[in-house]
Write a structure and sequence with these properties.
The chain has 2 helices and no strands. By secondary structure, the protein is an all-alpha fold.
Length: 87
Amino acid sequence: MERPIYRILHLVFALGVAHALFLLGQEGVRAYRLAQERARLEEALSRAEARVAELKVELAAAQDPAHLEALARRLGLVRPEETLKRR
């Protein structure tokens, strides 16, 4: 015959194993979600870096007098000695 204490010890061991498996599962889910979040943040960072590069190009172009003159002409502005002729 098996002693009753062994049954209790087996039950405690089984509960401990079940608890350990549950905690391992939770950590696996957490690691998966963190990996997804990291990928999302890295994508957002690369988009932000690309936007910064675009803005730097625009800033360099905005300081060029020829670019500023082209923008003014698109708006219909002319120099004082020029006349504006519309089609």
